[in-house]
Amino acid sequence: MNIYIAVISHGHSDLINQLACLPLLSKEYQVVIKSNKSKDHFDSWIESPNLYWIDDQYGCGFGRNNNIVFEYCRSELRMTEEDYFIVLNPDVIIESKEIERLIDHMSVGGVKLSAINLLKDRNKMIYDQSIRKFPTLLQFVKSFLGLGNSSILDKSSLISSSKVDWAAGSFLAFKSGHYAKLGGFDENYFMYCEDIDICYRSYLSGERVTYYPEISALHLAKHANRELFSMHFYWHITSALRFLLTKVGLTKKKSSLLE
């Protein structure tokens, strides 16, 4: 059983070099960086064993990029269905021992999709709002208008491993065979809601996300979707509508199959 980590860089090489998290992870696991822009540059560690760099096919969305890495791991690195595939943001700092603990928990519990406790400060006092209930149209609208979001789960109330609806794509861990069974991320999303969508499809398949609050990482998150009329805001709106329509369609399809 091996662990493969996918990191998508949108010109984040300066940040990746500065944080120096990936060279440490590559000492234990297979790390694949996929550049989405041509301006990336990495220090000499990029040629280290267990660290691979896909420097082509620019301008893809989040889902497409991660699917490219997944296929690379299968075809070039011989990843099997029994291995684990982790989607990791370039601005997440996690120690190898935390990943080891996570995979141990997943293996013992037979878990195929999991998330961890992302935090926004090094003192581990500020939670990243990374686990939530599946959103409704009203919740999306209120969130966009800055009126709060009732789909957010209170992490302080979850003190042991719990089943949740969905977790942010900043960190998601899959059993490789489960990712393949789901068909990976839906590439019809360009950015935003791909994580909700794949977690929803996993939920319909009978596998909910398992959240492990005792396993943590630092997420230096910077959200760019709130500026009205920006491309990020447009992508978020269209992705939210796509998910809501897809959710209705998938639910109806599952219901008809059960009749």
TrEMBL record:
Stretch forming the signal peptide: none
Statement: the UniProt record of this protein carries the keyword Transferase: yes
One Gene Ontology molecular-function label: transferase activity
Keywords, comma-separated and alphabetical: Transferase
SUPFAM superfamilies linked to this entry: Nucleotide-diphospho-sugar transferases
InterPro entries in alphabetical order: Nucleotide-diphossugar_trans (IPR029044)
UniProt keyword Transferase, yes or no: yes
PANTHER family: RHAMNOSYLTRANSFERASE WBBL
Protein name: Glycosyltransferase family 2 protein
